[in-house]
Amino acid sequence: MRDKAYRLNKIGEIIKRHEITSQEQLLNMLLEAGIKTTQATLSRDLRALKVLKVPHAIKGYIYAISETRIDTDEEKIRYLANAFKSISFSKNIAVIKTQPAYANSLALIIDQFELNDIIIGSLAGDDTVILVLNEDIEDRQIVKDALIRMLPTLKGRI
């Protein structure tokens, strides 16, 4: 029986070397490497490794290991800001439109900034992020300024 550290190391190695699109695919690759595990254990391992699903031009989303927090990686921030299309508001809801397959990653960055005094939560689809705003936020510019702090290249675009 292989230990957890070995399994985590192997998962990281597989994700770095291959474009993995699902837990099922990853489970099969682990099995080929002689590691038998359950989907529940794999889910916990992916959280422990801080694995993200990031947009891929052809495959939709692939797994990637976050070497550092995504909010400190300038290239990824610029990449996601370039996918930003628009923002509109309705009462305490903000709707952000992105290029297809980018909404989830953008919502992740927004969530990582933990702006609980401004944004209560986010929900992402393929090309849309819905932000539920704190009911005390009446000035929409506060939300825009927070997004610009997260994604500086949005300055002048929203």
Roughly how much helix do the residues carry, as a percent range?
40-55%
Main sheet makeup: 4 strands, antiparallel
Give the number of DSSP strands.
Answer: 6
The general outline is elongated
Mean pLDDT: 86
Unreliable segments of 5+ consecutive residues: 68-72
SSE series:
HHHEEHEEHEEH
- The fraction of residues assigned to DSSP E strands is 15-25%
* Integer-rounded radius of gyration: 18 Å
- Helix tally equals 6
Secondary structure category: alpha+beta
Termini distance?
Answer: 54 Å
Spatial sequence of strands, sheet with the most strands: 3-4-6-5
3D structure, described in words:
Helices cover 41% and strands 23% of the residues. The chain is built from six helices and six strands. It has helices at 4-17, 23-32, 39-48, 74-83, 103-112, 140-150; strands at 51-56, 60-65, 84-90, 93-98, 119-124, 128-133. Residues 68-72 have low confidence and may be disordered.
